[in-house]
Amino acid sequence: MSKCVKVRVLKGMNLVVQDWASRSSDPYVLLRLSKNEARTKVVEKSLNPRWEEEFVLPITDCCLKLEVWDWDSPRKLKRDDPMGEAEIDLNHLVNGDTQIVLPTPENCYSKNSYIKLCADGKRVQEVSLMLRKGKVSTGVVELQLEYPA
Ligand SMILES: [Ca+2]
């Protein structure tokens, strides 16, 4: 049995406008870890949404992918639009080999990411991710990851 990671999708900041009529977007987050997917609710008309939802995904792979999409009313007969994506390497959380991961040009962290060992043995990582769409920065998403003891 593989262990699971608990992903708390907290909030987005400074996301991009997709709906020009309202000068806003209706963002939701899609998480992908190997073949498993999880999706938050839609926060309508917000570029700084608070999702505050929690998901548990089995760790069958160490690359957690995150995508933000703009929901569009089904009446528009239009597909949802991508608003940016990022990915996280779960190896540091799983291995517990460091307490801090620094942002580099190769990863998607927008600031230092701290991994803390709790009294009960689980590890919690604070993650602030820089979204990208092509080469353009399209905002930040904050998460918290938890790995069991
Ligand atoms: Ca929309």
Written account of the structure:
The chain is mainly beta and 149 residues long. The protein has a single domain (4-147), classed as C2 domain (Immunoglobulin-like, Sandwich), CATH 2.60.40. The protein has 1 helix and 10 strands. The strands form 2 sheets. It has a 6-stranded antiparallel beta sheet with strand order 4-1-10-9-8-7. A 4-stranded antiparallel beta sheet has the order 3-2-5-6. The structure holds calcium ion. Residues 18-19, 25-26, 70-72 line the site of calcium ion.
Strand content: over 45%
CATH class: Mainly Beta
Write down how many β-strands occur, each being a DSSP E stretch of 2 or more residues: 10
Please tell me how large the radius of gyration is. 16 Å
**In which order are the strands of the major sheet placed?**
4-1-10-9-8-7
Annotation field: number of helices: 1
Can you tell me the CATH topology?
Answer: Immunoglobulin-like
Mean of all residue-level pLDDT scores: 95
Relevant CATH superfamily? C2 domain
- Count of distinct structural domains: 1
Tell me about the largest β-sheet.
6 strands, antiparallel
